[in-house]
From TrEMBL:
<dbReference type="InterPro" id="IPR006366">
    <property type="entry name" value="CobA/CysG_C"/>
</dbReference>
<dbReference type="InterPro" id="IPR035996">
    <property type="entry name" value="4pyrrol_Methylase_sf"/>
</dbReference>
<dbReference type="InterPro" id="IPR014777">
    <property type="entry name" value="4pyrrole_Mease_sub1"/>
</dbReference>
<dbReference type="InterPro" id="IPR000878">
    <property type="entry name" value="4pyrrol_Mease"/>
</dbReference>
<dbReference type="Pfam" id="PF00590">
    <property type="entry name" value="TP_methylase"/>
</dbReference>
<keyword id="KW-0489">Methyltransferase</keyword>
<dbReference type="InterPro" id="IPR014776">
    <property type="entry name" value="4pyrrole_Mease_sub2"/>
</dbReference>
<comment type="pathway">
    <text>Porphyrin-containing compound metabolism; siroheme biosynthesis; precorrin-2 from uroporphyrinogen III: step 1/1.</text>
</comment>
<dbReference type="GO" id="GO:0019354">
    <property type="term" value="P:siroheme biosynthetic process"/>
</dbReference>
<feature type="domain" description="Tetrapyrrole methylase">
    <location>
        <begin position="10"/>
        <end position="220"/>
    </location>
</feature>
<keyword id="KW-0627">Porphyrin biosynthesis</keyword>
<comment type="similarity">
    <text>Belongs to the precorrin methyltransferase family.</text>
</comment>
<keyword id="KW-0808">Transferase</keyword>
<dbReference type="InterPro" id="IPR050161">
    <property type="entry name" value="Siro_Cobalamin_biosynth"/>
</dbReference>
<dbReference type="GO" id="GO:0032259">
    <property type="term" value="P:methylation"/>
</dbReference>
<dbReference type="GO" id="GO:0004851">
    <property type="term" value="F:uroporphyrin-III C-methyltransferase activity"/>
</dbReference>
<keyword id="KW-0949">S-adenosyl-L-methionine</keyword>
Length: 268
């Protein structure tokens, strides 16, 4: 790295979207086509790699089946190494990299090591997964707004923001990376918001393999366990769950839903 490269070492962090490859942005596709090397995560659909020029190195840096290819520190170092070796590094991350995706963290590290950086937003699964089955983040008369939370803090403790969320059920709560703490989250909402708060879990949202379970915070953990749902999944809590599409409850993908939730709430 002491010698000046003949190209500009740079990093573009690209949001891969929620899963469906057709939901990649045009700018994201252009960035992939201009990449000299691509570092991609498990949540980035492999079909997106078709946008990359033949012969460009593709490096998997995600986690699959419990195997973690790189630590975050290792990814940071790899970005810098590959940029000085190849030029333009595209870091392809699921959803939107700036929504619990550590995208800016990687950019800051790259900038500190002399790389130019850019960011291409992606469609976040926080909204798209629920929306794909008819659950909006907000709806007039049902939700005053929405919040997007991660289930745990950096030290793996349950997020303190969940308590405030549980006490204000009139605001839709969308939780990412929360399946391992689902029972605790549901119990918290049942205690402070009421056992009848509607809840839904969307696994593999926007994909043909999507599965949905819905109920209330009193039984959602049991329903999810019985259906075998796991990560990656989005948890949605609030009255907007009542607006879920009828078709999402009767497809052939193992989806189940409390019938009483499939009634449209009367809105102003």
């Amino acid at each position: 790295m002491a010698d000046s490269p003949l190209f500009l070492p740079r990093l573009t962090v690209v949001g891969a979207g929620p899963g469906d490859p057709d939901l990649l942005t045009l700018k994201g596709a252009k960035a992939l086509a201009a990449a000299d090397v691509v570092l991609y995560d498990a949540l980035a659909n492999d079909a997106l790699l078709a946008h990359v020029r033949p012969g460009v190195p593709l490096i998997f840096v995600g986690k699959r089946s419990g195997f973690k290819a790189y630590t975050q520190e290792g990814i940071n170092d790899l970005i810098v190494q590959q940029a000085y070796r190849h030029g333009h590094v595209v870091r392809l991350k699921g959803g939107d990299p700036f929504v619990f995706g550590r995208g800016r963290e990687e950019m800051l590290y790259a900038e500190a090591h002399g790389l130019a950086t850019d960011y291409v937003p992606g469609i976040s699964s926080a909204v798209a997964a629920a929306g794909s089955v008819g659950i909006p983040a907000t709806h007039r008369g049902l939700s005053e707004g929405f919040r997007v939370l991660t289930a745990t803090t950096a030290d793996e403790q349950l997020s303190t923001a969940l308590l405030e969320a549980a006490q204000t059920p009139g605001v839709t709560t969308i939780i990412l990376m929360g399946m391992s703490r689902l029972a605790e989250i549901a119990a918290l909402f049942a205690r402070y918001g009421g056992a009848d708060v509607p809840a839904a879990i969307i696994q593999n949202g926007t994909l043909p393999t999507a599965r949905v379970v819905a109920g209330t915070v009193a039984d959602i953990a049991t329903r999810a366990s019985s259906a075998g749902l796991g990560a990656p999944a989005v948890i949605v809590l609030g009255d907007v769950v009542r607006l879920m599409k009828q078709s999402a409850a009767v497809d052939a993908r193992g989806t189940e839903l409390l019938p009483e939730l499939l009634t449209y709430a009367k809105v102003a």
